[in-house]
Amino acid sequence: MMLNKDRFFPADPVTRSIAQRLFKEVTHLPLLCVHGHTDPAWFSGNQNFTDPAQLLIVPDHYILRMLVSQGVDHAALGVKPIDGTPAEGDGRKIWRLFVENYHLFRSTPVRHWMDYTLEQQFGFDAPLPSLDADDSFDRISGALASDAFKPRALFDKFNIGVLATTDSCLDDLAHHRIISHSDWGGHVVPTYRPDSVTNPDLAGFQDAIARLGALTGEDTTTWKGLLRAHKKRRRDFIAHGATATDHGHPSATTSDLSKAECQALYADILRGKAGKRKKEAFRGQMLTEMARMSIDDGLVMQVHVGSMRNHSRFVFEKYGPDQGFDIPARTDFVSALKPLLDIMGHDPRLTIILFTLDETTYGRELAPLAGAYPCLRLGPAWWFFDSPDGMLRYRGITTEIAGYYNTVGFNDDTRAFPSIPARHDLARRIDCSFLANQVAEHRIGEDEAAEVAVDLAYGLALKSYKYGHLS
Length: 471
Description:
Elements: H1 13-26, E1 31-33, H2 40-45, H3 52-56, H4 61-69, H5 91-100, H6 109-122, H7 133-144, H8 151-157, E2 160-164, E3 167-168, H9 174-181, E4 188-189, E5 192-193, H10 195-198, H11 205-216, H12 223-239, E6 244-248, H13 259-270, H14 276-297, E7 300-305, E8 307-308, H15 313-319, E9 327-328, H16 338-344, E10 352-356, H17 361-370, E11 376-378, H18 388-402, H19 420-440, H20 446-464
Parallel strand pairs: 1-2, 2-4, 3-5, 6-7, 7-10, 10-11
Antiparallel strand pairs: 8-9
Helix pairs in contact: 1-19, 1-20, 6-19, 11-12, 13-14, 17-18, 18-19, 19-20
């Protein structure tokens, strides 16, 4: 095996032994995949995956970023240019390119996730650089062609308790409907993401507003009609098992405008007469309105902020959005969230889970806020920081201020389905390592640490995302 059984545990033998004991308490717990970007069509159709590159390489932004940073063109990795210029369509060639450059991922999360995936899912006993690229491609391809590697079979093999997809508010939920009416027992639920109709800066915003109206039978050219349309769509998602919303905003800005101000602002937005300040106010007001709706219908809010999207103009203009060039940016939470918190911050019916790409806010803003306001919880170390050291920094900074129970456990946030177990394994090992150090330094008893380890791996996500039916 290429994976050491004590990977990511403390080097000190005494502390390591504590981590080993704690890890035994969590290693067989079901995986709660509460936020990710897997495709529900995989589970509705349950067709075999066919191309290792399309499954493991092309959708993974971590891999894309690293290879592009070393001069590899997007097109060589299968990303199609907007102008219709051909991109590499041969998965074997893309895989060869990845294997050739595998050394670039040393000491990065990608290396840890990929080694785990190749060993645990495909039976590899040596890392990629020591293997022939074509042989490894054929080995994976052969496995993918079997019934054991169909999406539903992998879901069951991975011991997934629930998997929440992230779905546009305009999605017809057809795939979720097929899953729920099938005889398969896997829990795949949608998550309500309204960004396409709450962010006027997104391409196609006006068309999205019209589509929302058509889907709901509401006049979404009016402020009241817009809100009614969201309420209807949220009910549709809840009927298909949704327990959460997701909001990918540039900032954490919230607003508290009067009804007349909202109507006037929305009219300016639709007429295309709103500048940067008004667009930000509209996004902020929509977060506040989503919180009001959550109090009524019970959906948990996830707010992901702190990313400057599509930073590279060259890549955006040539390949379009979401091609690996989202960069962390400085973020304000204390002032930005205050309008919403002044209205609903102490309402026990509201849960808002905060995620950031600005690590500097952990101790200065996020932990103090979540450690005081009943409605706030801290999402796990996200995106660039769901790495071994990133997760340890997160625990070290936030625990003394907010404790463990104002956090929500782990989520894998991935598009690469086979890597889900690897990501949960790493997170559980890191949490056990952190707790082992706490025990070794006599900050917490080992019996308490074992209880916390189970909660971080399973219990907190179960409670925070309202998956009571699984307990």
